[in-house]
Specification:
45 residues; mainly alpha; 60% helix
């Protein structure tokens, strides 16, 4: 089964704002999305 992670508009806007202050955030977020698409329960279950 495959999953797709869709952020809300507000989250995407805040992520963009925070990425200016924390440059590594974009890469970390991309890794998180990849991990959640493969294993949706990662860090929760």
């Amino acid at each position: 089964m495959s999953y797709e992670v869709l952020p809300t508009r507000r989250f995407a806007k805040e992520l963009k704002r925070l990425a200016k202050k924390y440059p590594s955030l974009k890469g970390e977020y991309a890794k998180l999305i990849e991990q959640l698409e493969v294993e949706p329960c990662a860090g929760v279950c």
